[in-house]
Amino acid sequence: MQIKGVFKQTGERRFLRTLISQKYLLLLLLPGIAATFVFSYLPMYGILIAFKQFNPLHGIWGSKWIGLQNFKELFDAVLFWRAFKNTIVLNLYQILFAFPGPILFALLLNEIRNVVFKRWMQTVTYFPHFLSWVVVGGFAVAILSPNTGVLATITEWFGGERYSEFLLTDPKAFRTILIVTELWKNMGWGAIIYLAAITGVNPEYYDAAVIDGAGRFKQALHVTLPAIMPTIVVLLVLRIGNMMGSDFEQIYVLYSPNVYEVGDVLSTYVFRLGLFQGKYSYTTAVGLFQSIIGFTLIVLANRLSRRAGGALW
What confidence score (pLDDT) does residue 81 get? Predict the structure, then answer.
């Protein structure tokens, strides 16, 4: 018991010494901690709305407690399951097609030896990230319009027939449009992280690969890609954790009732019912369910990623 007490006192003293030596860094952390507490933890009080028949006039505590009735209602709602399915499908498409885009682009940029052209290309490709989805939506309408659209005009120039259907209202084309616009807007910006990781690769690895007879392609495949794999895994884990939270702005700008069948996701579903129909308790229940699934996904993804050496904790 005496030895255990000595270890405990030593650990406490070491902890206090660390606090004192790092006091200025801890002071710098305080604003971030305070902001996280105010904007991320205090709003959790509103979760109670999911278990009540919320009335804004009575407030959260004054509203009637109804238990799990809102959850029963959402599990019985056909439109909820449609939005849930669309959320999963769209995010799987994003992971399969949009997530590898910045990785491949970073690998290609890394192979450019002309520094001026490389910087110009990088600037041009990450500039769309700073455009709002409203502007991107305007571009999409201008390009895909059946009468005056750029795509229809080019198709006609090459001898094709000018299509009469607006592609943004075509359920078969809508998901493809979402993936393409996501790639165009964020591929260059996402590549910055991977380029930063590539700069940390030891040049001696490339020299050894050259001695072994590896060309540029094999160097990228067997040296660069494995070296940035931990970064890829961490970002993939974060992306999987955000699977239940599709980009609301992108979908809300581009979708219409004609494509609700394939484009209505949980975030737009909650927005419509909460804002326009005033179903605050029901949509809070949907949001809580969404958060629980997202948390479960990120924990599972992190455990699986341990094998690749890129776990978050």
Answer: 92
Tell me the C-alpha distance between 179 and 198, whole Å. Answer: 26
Q: Is residue 25 packed enough to be buried (19+ CB in 10 Å), middle (13-18) or exposed (0-12)?
A: exposed
* Mean pLDDT within 31-48: 87
Computed on alpha carbons and rounded to an integer, the radius of gyration of the chain in Å comes to 25
State the Cα–Cα distance between residues 245 and 266, nearest whole angstrom: 8
CB 177 within 8 A of CB 139: no
Provide mean pLDDT across the span 27-43. 88
Pairwise CA distance, residues 32 & 24, whole Å: 14
Tokens read off for 255? 């979708």
- The pLDDT value recorded for residue 246 is 66
Burial class (CB within 10 angstroms; exposed 0-12, middle 13-18, buried 19+) of 232: buried
Q: Is the pLDDT of residue 144 over 50?
A: yes
Place of tokens 């067997």: 222
Other Cβ atoms less than 10 A from the Cβ of 3: the count is: 7
Neighbour count for residue 125 (Cβ, 10 Å):
20
State both tokens at 124: 């041009």
Distance separating alpha carbons of residues 7 and 276, to the nearest angstrom: 61
Cα 211 to the chain's mean position, in Å?
40
Mean pLDDT, the chain, rounded, equals 83
Secondary structure E strands in the chain: 52-55, 63-65
DSSP H or E run through 117: helix 115-126
> Residue 11: its pLDDT value, please?
62
Residue with tokens 């606090």: 19
Q: Which of 182-191, 199-208, 286-295 has the highest mean pLDDT?
A: 182-191
Sequence-separated (6 or more) residues with CB below 8 Å from residue 222: 209, 214
Whether the CB-CB separation of 182 and 94 falls below 8 Å is answered with yes
Please, are residues 148 and 265 in contact by the beta-carbon 8 Å criterion? no
For the whole model, what pTM was predicted? 0.79
